[in-house]
Amino acid sequence: MEKVEKNLFGTIKRLGKRLARSLLEDVLTAYCVMRDPDTPWQAKAILAGALVYFIQPFDVIPDVMPMGLVDDAAILAAALERVGRYTDDRHRDEARAILDKLFGEKEAIVPAS
Predict the structure, then answer these.
(1) Are 34 and 44 in contact (CB under 8 A)?
(2) How big is the CA angle at 83 (ends 13 and 50), to the nearest 5 degrees?
(3) Tally of domains in the chain
(4) CA-based angle 100:66:22, to the nearest 5?
(5) Are 87 and 47 in contact (CB under 8 A)?
(6) Which part of the chain is the DUF1232 domain (predicted)?
(7) Which of 66, 84, 103, 109 is at a distance of 20 to 30 A from 19, taking alpha carbons?
């Protein structure tokens, strides 16, 4: 789990200035739902797959290209939609707290619309 966290948080820090805060909140919400002991293993597996795809820099549309994160965002959105019934406000609150800790509260990342 430590390696996953290191890779996930490293990717967020690396891409943070390019991404909308709402997308980063979604990534971290998926992470928080996946870590929740009450989340069924099937939902955890779906979220783990989406997070691994997000972490990997080379995928269908490489992240270094313009628009390279569109596929990552789509996969993440589909995963969160699929496991939506296991997601609640405490997961979103925890995700926001992690994001604030990583970047400082409301630091100069693109604000959510």
Answers:
(1) yes
(2) 40
(3) 1
(4) 25
(5) no
(6) 43-77
(7) 84
